[in-house]
Design brief:
With 424 residues, the chain is mainly β. Helix content is 14%, strand content 39%.
């Protein structure tokens, strides 16, 4: 197989000094054809303080003014990384990279070396490639919910993920700050929501529960080589692990593996729609209704720092319908999107203050956490996508989103008078 890859990076970038003595960097990443580059890694060189571009290739990053002489790196699978010095940026500016082509020699998979061998090698290199000592990830989580194509509620959370570094060991979530909108649903068939736990605890490298990443279960999958791509000077194998029968797995997996160390850098899970009846969470049922999905996809990306890989981002997109279990009729269509972005990696032991991380219902947790307007005003969130803007526009037909956050977050705790006045 031959592949010719080119990159043109065209962000409309701004560099601003805020009152908090920080640098605000925003822009957009595109390829030579003007197509958005989603899930690109944007970070300060030599650190993992950064962000990931959204589905439209847009990014937003705030860093300390002390970093004004540092370099920002932009990288994505299939492209050559770009670097720009913060000190040389002027607002506004247009950055265009000259065409850079990397021709890959034809890759021949012999009878002695099959695509499945690549995946087996990746499994065997887990401990070498992924962090095995205590660390903490800082992240941002957002979930939105639609009913009959109309947005009904939204929640955002700033979290820490505590890990003891042991593979297949449950990580712990610390919720630093949470905020939620009003709930516009008329039929509250779904009582609670716990997808943030799924994104953290069940990501493929950590959980050890996915059959395509178990040597003993690979016999139940057909593994094919889809393509070979490049990132900088590295080759990456893109594999398809397709389950041989529905009884073995309810999903197919597209796995991207770096050639030089067989590190998994990207996983896309596509769940089989006709098996949705076997994949409905407890909170998606009640006596008279049940959720059936016709589209489910999860994606996980991983980033390298000091020779080890860590989770970079995770998402879970679900579309389906709620059926009346008695009449078998559709009551309404639903769509939910859950996104987790890791913004920083910290090594060492950390004191965890929040002991309620095992609570499944994050919406319920928001009732017990006071809304801190000052925190969110200074917090660096990903650039808002069209999806978020649509959700905001719909929800704000009731009232301003900021007002909803203030009114619906911390409803079951009493706010001090000073906090109330500062939120207005």
């Amino acid at each position: 197989m031959k592949s010719i890859l080119t990159l043109v990076f065209i962000p409309l970038t701004t560099l601003l000094f805020s009152q908090q003595n920080t640098l605000s960097i925003s822009g957009q990443i595109k390829d030579e054809a003007g197509v958005f580059v989603p899930f690109a890694h944007v970070y300060i060189k030599g650190s993992q303080k950064g962000t990931v571009s959204n589905t439209e290739g847009r990014f937003n990053l705030k860093v300390s003014a002390d970093n004004k002489n540092e370099t920002v790196v932009f990288s994505a699978i299939g492209f050559k990384s770009a670097e720009r010095k913060l000190s040389e940026w002027k607002s506004p500016q247009l950055i265009v990279l000259k065409e850079s082509s990397l021709v890959l020699d034809e890759v021949v998979v012999s009878d002695k070396f099959q695509p499945k061998d690549i995946l087996v090698g990746a499994i065997e290199n887990f401990k070498k490639n992924y962090k095995t000592s205590t660390h903490r990830l800082e992240g941002f989580y957002r979930t939105t919910f639609q009913q009959d194509k109309s947005f009904m509620r939204m929640l955002e959370a700033a979290i820490y993920i505590h890990s003891n570094g042991k593979m297949h060991n449950r990580q712990r979530i610390e919720f630093r700050h949470i905020r939620k909108s009003a709930d516009l649903r008329t039929d509250k068939w779904k009582i609670y929501d716990g997808y943030v736990n799924h994104l953290v605890h069940n990501h493929p490298i950590q959980s050890g529960q996915w059959g395509f990443l178990k040597k003993g279960s690979l016999k139940f999958f057909h593994v094919d080589l889809l393509e070979v791509v490049a990132q900088d000077n590295d080759l990456l194998y893109v594999l398809l692990a397709k389950s041989k029968s529905d009884s073995h797995a309810i999903y197919d997996a597209i796995v991207t593996i770096r050639e030089k160390d067989l590190a998994i850098v990207d996983v896309l899970l596509k769940f089989k729609p006709h098996l949705s009846d076997n994949f409905s969470w407890a909170w998606e049922r009640r006596d008279t209704a049940k959720f059936f999905s016709y589209r489910q996809e999860s994606r996980y990306t991983y980033q390298e720092f000091e020779g080890k890989f860590y989770l970079r981002s995770a998402s879970w997109h679900r579309k389906g319908k709620v059926l009346n279990t008695k009449t078998k009729m559709t009551e309404f269509d639903t769509e939910s999107l859950d996104e987790l972005l890791i913004t920083d990696i910290m090594q060492g032991n950390f004191q965890q203050e929040d002991k309620r991380e095992e609570e499944l219902d994050i919406y319920r947790m928001a009732d017990y956490n006071q809304y801190d307007a000052a925190f969110w005003e200074n917090y660096t969130r990903p650039v808002d996508t069209k999806h978020f803007k649509s959700a905001k526009a719909k929800l704000e037909k009731a009232s301003r989103l900021e007002q909803q956050f203030n009114e619906n977050t911390g409803r079951l705790v009493r706010k001090p008078a000073k906090q109330l006045s500062s939120d207005r």
